[in-house]
Here is the input.
Amino acid sequence: MVGGNQAGKEGNVIASNVKLDDGVVIHHPDLVNLYGCSIGRGSRIGTFVEIQKNASIAENCKISSHTFICEGVTIEDGVFVGHGVMFTNDLHPRAVNLDGTLQSDVDWSVIPTLVKRYASIGSNATIVAGITIGEGAQIGAGAVVTKDVPAYAIVAGVPAKIIGRAKDAPVEVISSGRGR
Ligand SMILES: CC(C)(COP(=O)(O)OP(=O)(O)OC[C@H]1O[C@@H](n2cnc3c(N)ncnc32)[C@H](O)[C@@H]1OP(=O)(O)O)[C@@H](O)C(=O)NCCC(=O)NCCS
Here is the structure.
């Protein structure tokens, strides 16, 4: 279940409420912060990754080191997430309310994000809350993604714009024009 080091040893920061399917590999269980999330069969989690409660990662995904996956993020099968990718779940975050009191869970709502199967997110990308990244889409390194990304589109830049189409898209996707 957990590769490299063993889960359950001192210093392990995988909370007991994490749902790990068979075959999940967490290279350094003592160097991640996982709580209340689910991770599907065969997925691999790199070092210094944080995955929050109510985030879900499906099967055979690769989550590279230093990535932050927050509450409200759903990642489908076979998705690649590069190093230092930042997801977000609040468009207008505040530390305090108008009366100066610290905000808590009741003072804001999670905005969900969906990453569809086979998508690939380049290192250091930021995914602004509330978007859908389409099947097989490729996100360039360092992109700030602010809008939905069509299936098999390649996007890059700040804000991210479509710069091409994935060359490994299935033939039927290319001929149908999906992903433009
Ligand atoms: C976005 C990406 C998929 C594009 O690859 P590509 O389709 O082969 O595109 P090209 O290299 O031909 O570049 C096309 C244009 O986009 C620009 N471009 C490429 N990647 C870019 C990026 N990340 N941000 C901004 N512009 C980018 C190129 O400079 C080029 O511009 P030009 O036409 O003005 O010269 C790739 O560059 C990328 O960023 N991949 C992610 C890499 C990564 O993070 N891997 C993580 C694991 S190590």
Remarks:
- The chain has a mean pLDDT of 91.
- The longest helix spans residues 171-176.
